[in-house]
Design a protein that fits this description.
By secondary structure, this protein is mostly helical. The protein has 15 helices and three strands. The protein has helices at residues 2-8, 15-35, 38-41, 44-55, 65-72, 87-99, 110-127, 131-136, 139-142, 174-186, 206-220, 232-261, 266-275, 277-289, 302-305, and strands at 143-144, 150-153, 166-169. Strand 1 and strand 2 form a beta hairpin. The radius of gyration is 21 Å and the shape is elongated.
Length: 323
């Protein structure tokens, strides 16, 4: 039965068998990622892990395969492998974008195209959106940039019809995105992340945006291991991977708190902790520490500085780090 099959993943008689069981567990987590809503996916792997902690009190468990799987999980989707972009590649793309001397896309000025591309890269790293969510976004009404910056998505894939609208945390670049929102409002923009006067949505299509990413990556000499340029989906994997690492560390924090408070079952504390609104904010703040240093946002693009006072938004320099 399913219970015995899951329990068997935590049993091994050799290092090789443990490696095999870990890879099988990775496949299960990949399946979760493919079929579950993001809000559900943020918690399920940790409930899965707690299963082994609980049953180890009464049954043989040699190791926790979920712990091992989460440590090496690369967010490979079951429909095809999606590679993680490295910190060095992000740095190369960003530096290339800063140092361009001519626009690689005909019909646009370099300054405007550079602003759009910086905004696109920051947003897809900060939020991990699906391609269609980039197209439908209205920065004037969906960005909430207070103490707990997040994006409000009214409809998301895999959510039931009666589920509440999704609040997806903005994990980096909140000040930049606030500046971009103010710029759009001040210049009477249509609210699209990368506007288009011809598309039905008012935004450049995902195909166009991925083509622009491809052109930038070609100049920057950035390619994934399969020799293809990164797409919006690959940036989504970066967001998921970094957030998962943060939640994994938070789970260890919750376990410590349970031990300190004398709670026998950390899962109970985790449910109570994550369900509380204030503590959800604290979890997100822990997560944002894992995004620190991914992008070096030293100043606003030239076009935005012509409309805004940069000192109202950019207060310190961030630096790159490999992750």
């Amino acid at each position: 039965n399913i219970d015995s099959e899951i329990l068997d993943l935590g049993r091994c008689d050799s290092d090789d068998e443990a490696t095999t069981k870990t890879q099988q567990t990775v496949a299960i987590i990949e399946y979760m990622d493919d079929v579950l809503a993001d809000s559900t996916m943020q918690n399920y792997p940790f409930y899965f892990s707690e299963y082994y902690e609980i049953v180890s009190n009464s049954k043989r468990v040699d190791f926790n395969p979920v712990e091992e799987a989460l440590d090496e999980f690369a967010w490979v989707r079951s429909r095809g492998e999606t590679h993680t972009i490295t910190g060095a590649q992000l740095k190369q793309m960003w530096n290339t974008l800063n140092n361009l001397t001519e626009c690689p896309v005909e019909g646009h000025t370099l300054d405007r195209w550079r602003m759009w591309m910086k905004t696109l890269i920051i947003f897809i790293l900060a939020v991990g959106p699906r391609s269609d969510e980039v197209e439908r976004l209205d920065v004037r009404t969906q960005l909430y940039l207070g103490d707990d910056p997040h994006v409000h998505f009214a409809e998301r894939k895999n959510l039931q019809q009666d589920d509440a609208p999704e609040h997806v945390p903005i994990m980096l670049g909140a000040s930049y995105l606030q500046a971009y929102r103010d710029y759009v409002q001040q210049t009477n923009g249509n609210g699209s992340l990368v506007p288009s006067p011809r598309s039905e949505s008012g935004c450049r299509t995902a195909g166009t945006l991925n083509d622009w990413l491809r052109r930038l990556c070609k100049i920057a000499n950035v390619r994934l291991p399969d020799n293809t340029p990164p797409t919006i989906q690959d940036f989504r994997q970066v967001w998921k991977t970094q957030y998962l690492k943060a939640l994994h560390k938070n789970r260890e924090h919750i376990k410590f708190v349970s031990e300190e408070s004398g709670t026998d079952d950390p899962l109970v504390d985790e449910n109570n902790y994550v369900d509380d609104v204030e503590n959800r904010r604290q979890v997100r703040e822990l997560g944002r520490k894992h995004f620190d240093g991914l992008l070096e946002i030293e100043e606003l693009p030239k076009i935005m500085k012509e409309e805004l006072d940069q000192t109202d938004y950019i207060s310190r320099q961030a630096t790159f780090s490999d992750f």
